[in-house]
Input
Amino acid sequence: MSLEVIYVTRHGTVEPFVGLWAQSARPDADAGTKPAILGEAGLSEWYGSASFEHPTSASSDRLAELFPAFDRSYVPAVVPSRMGESIAQLHDRVALTMDALIKQCDEAGVRAVLLCSHAATAIALGRVLTGNMPENIEAEDFRVFTCSLSAFRRRAAAPCDIAGEAAATSAPRTLGGPILLQQKWIGRTAEELEAGGYAK
Output
């Protein structure tokens, strides 16, 4: 299965990866087979709660100037608060982001995705995608480093939405498993999470 979409934090780039990918692609592959590079603010760095605004990334137009593979037309599903967030809010942000990205990918028939993020956000990604939320949020359950790779595969079980309800479709599911929003995410709607400071 080849990579179809790359969601990146808007604070970094995967331009070197895209260059290597292009070099290793079959010579007869057309430009349409290259994965889309989408800047998703919901995968951004975690900044702790503060009484001031934290830095934000450059505009989509500027990022596309610097990194030609960046898709300037993509609109992020989630935008974190400029005032930072608690670790609990980080987990909520990542849950809301993954719910949106999985829906996007399912609707487009996308089966292979690369998510590029930062350490604290990547730990939250592991917890959200597996549904394994430790009692102590400081537990070292998902080890991520300055540069690391984690692979997740969707389970074959029936999918569920962010409210924890079984979906009515029997379409094949491939990205991340049914998203298991157990523990504190079950029963919370996207609107409730958005009320916590996350908006499109």
